[in-house]
Amino acid sequence: MPAMYLPRGSVLWIEAKDLLATPAGTTKIWNKVTEHNRSPVELNVERIEQVVRTSNGTLRKNHVADKRSFSMSWEMLPSYRTLTVDGGWGAEDIRQFYFSDDGKKTFNIRLNLAKTGTDQSSSGFEPYTVSISGCNFSIVKRGLQPHWNVSLTLDEV
Asked: Domain locations in the chain?
């Protein structure tokens, strides 16, 4: 079954070595992560600032930065991209990336929020440099290909 075309595209793209390339992936490319049974993406902002109440009662704030955190999960996600609805990374692809050298360091992502109502994965996306702060994998169903529940949390560096 060929992959479906989604008019808004995948929300998450990860820059990493091509997992299918031989030998062991040598060039970095943009890999889309599947939309197959994905739950809503949570976009959280942590404001880093110093807040002080002065002796005369006024409040003084020193804003340092806003750092984002992205959380998402998938239910009954097929292991490989060959069985996802859109041909994006499946559970084993995400797992393989998580345990790879690239997944242990900081890496680049693109968020395609489709603000204009169209696919913005090639332009108009929001780029971030992130690291993985949490990742969980649960095998839900075994068969010809296992299906997984996967959760992923990324923190902006």
From this structure: 12-156
